[in-house]
Amino acid sequence: MNQITRIGTDLHALVADESMLDLALEGADIAPLLMVLVHLSGEEHWLDDVAPHINGPWNFQESVPEDLKQRVRARMKEVLRDFSLNRRPLPPEPPPGLLRKMLSSGVGGAVPEEYIPMILEEMNLGDSDPKTVRWRTKPANDVLAGFRAVIIGAGVSGLSMAIKLQEAGIPFVIYEKNKTVGGTWLENSYPGCGVDTPNHFYSLSFEPNHDWPDHFSKRDELWKYMERLADQYDIRRHIRFETEVTAAVYQEARAVWLVSTCDASGREETIDANALISAIGQLNRPSIPDFPGLNDFKGPKFHTARWDHSVDLTGKNVAMIGTGASGMQVGPSIAGEVGHLTIFQRSAHWAVYNANYHKAVGAGKTAALKLIPFYAKWYRFQLLWASSDGLHASLHADPDWPTPDQSLNETNQKFREQITEYIRGQVNGDEALMRKVVPPYPPYGKRMLRDNHWYKMLTRDNVDLVNDPIERITADGVITRTGQMVPADVLVLATGFDAQRMLAPMHIEGRGGQTIRELWGEDNPRAYLGITVPAFPNLFMLYGPGTNLAHGGSAIYHSECQVRYIMQCLRELLESGARAMEVKQDPHDRFNEYLDATHAKMVWAHRGVGNWYKNKAGRVVTNSPFRLVDYRAMTEKLDRNDYVMV
Ligand code: NAP
């Protein structure tokens, strides 16, 4: 059944159920509902009436008077009834002029022309995914059957790659080190673990989920979503679980990768891959700092990504090291249960408030997402706009800004002041605590966190924040440089990941016997568009070097851009009859020069900031400095001239 028919069926059910219709209309956010009304009815005047009360893309940024909301809902009811009773087909995409006006009205600000293709793709108003790469001349069955792609990792990127390969009829196998799918959302199960990108945007554009229980759902729901993807698209039969790829060596004469694997029982195998696609992500190998005495600690100790659920924290003295995104979620989730929580902070992180962060999605909104035609699509547009490129321009340093150590420019300074005031309110004006938690560097220098009641937690009697550096760990606790001994029964390492050592610990050996470590060193990865590397033919990366997002957006958005690009590469290979494609040095180098030069102006390259984006030499290696709209444009169409085909 295609999407339009399905929407139509749901619409009849909705209109037939008056109480459900009222629930959905009441629960729907007014801005996307307004968009649906205009989309279905073509009645443009509603934009003039309502849009002046929409002050931004988040639902808490609208101040639409209640009587006006009721008028929108009442008219919406009439329109839905008309569509249902008269069996009217749902309209296509609004005409360009109206569409432009709707986009800007819906988010309370001008939406530039350059964003329209990206938005339309993300909203996916039609019957099929506009990012799908279709054959121009479908290769013969035996050509396809003789080709094999190997995907490493069954997280969201690996699954999304697999879905697209399957659609195109390209054979593939996935190797996954864990027992099941989910990647980061499987491995991270620490208390409070959840997403901090709005969920209805943090999901595949072609596979929305209308059942997210929260606006920012927790790990179990995200993992369930990945499990559902694997089942729905019947991907599991292609996955070799509990099997790690240990090495891949390019065989130039045959133009294949010889991929070595090792399963849970230690059995080793090799397999040929025509294309090798890494979907291992950047954040899958925990970083365990080399604290003196760490192994002497006699109680349980574990990294956040390897949470030991057998350990009962009730009443225990817990020491947690690290205050990044993981620590921010763990701390407040366990503070009420433990006896005492001591948090070791090496440097403070900025964290912002979001009114939806702890809010459940009500039954009404869920009904609207499921039953009101186009509502979910307009809602997705709003969230995309709310959490993507809006801040990008404000993260560039103004060379004339007088206080470059603490902020970058006027907007960034305002941001600093607003967050500082917010923190002051949360800690009840405790200036000693303020001095510890307000970072000296500009907001966004490290990944911006969402306040998970962190500051309030710090005011609890059973929580201490220690910013004295750690000297060593003993059998019973942690000793700081000033000699303070903090007793601990349990040690939690919220110390992040080895993100810069990309593709480790695999041995990847390209053309001419060169290994990826020889090329990149320990921590200096580079790739063209974050995807391909000279001398490593037919090797593709999802979430590779220079693709992590730090200004906004969603890793899933980037991953979908990369999947589309890789699908075009494979189409090129298979249609042309070439055996291998290798990115040329020149475009690769030019891209990386541009990447580095763009980073140099951005906040995360700021000299006063330590973050996991930089390597030891200070080069930002994990992140993209580009707006989403730019990265989309760079990856939208493969330029065959960038590659040598053999
Ligand atoms: P992280 O941001 O790298 O934080 C690691 C923390 O450990 C930092 O506070 C760091 O201090 C500290 N640390 C590291 N080594 C240390 C040492 N030797 N001594 C003392 N402190 C040390 O790691 P994370 O919190 O796991 O987050 C990593 C990334 O995962 C995030 O940025 C995000 O992209 C993703 N993530 C997302 C979510 C979400 O969506 N909600 C949740 C978790 C993780 P410094 O700051 O001084 O380096």
Alpha-beta content class: alpha/beta
Whole-number average pLDDT? 96
Q: What is the alpha-carbon Rg in Å? A: 26 Å
- Please describe the biggest sheet, giving its number of strands, its sense, and whether it closes into a barrel: 5 strands, parallel
**DSSP summary: helix tally:** 21
Return the CATH architecture of the largest domain.
3-Layer(bba) Sandwich
CATH topology of the largest domain: FAD/NAD(P)-binding domain
* Count of DSSP strands: 21
Question: Separation of termini?
Answer: 42 Å
Proportion in β-strands = 5-15%
Shape: globular
Portion in helices: 25-40%
Helix and strand topology:
Layout: H1 3-16, H2 18-27, H3 30-41, H4 45-50, H5 66-85, H6 96-107, H7 116-123, H8 141-145, E1 149-152, H9 156-168, E2 172-175, H10 184-187, H11 219-232, E3 239-240, E4 243-251, E5 256-263, E6 268-273, E7 275-278, E8 301-303, E9 317-321, H12 325-334, E10 340-344, E11 351-352, H13 363-371, H14 375-386, H15 410-426, H16 431-437, E12 449-450, H17 454-458, E13 463-466, E14 470-473, E15 477-480, E16 485-487, E17 490-493, E18 507-509, H18 516-520, E19 539-541, H19 555-576, E20 581-583, H20 585-600, H21 628-636, E21 643-645
Helix pairs in contact: 1-5, 2-13, 3-5, 3-6, 3-14, 7-14, 9-19, 13-14, 19-21
The site of NADP nicotinamide-adenine-dinucleotide phosphate (NAP) has 24 residues, from helix 12.
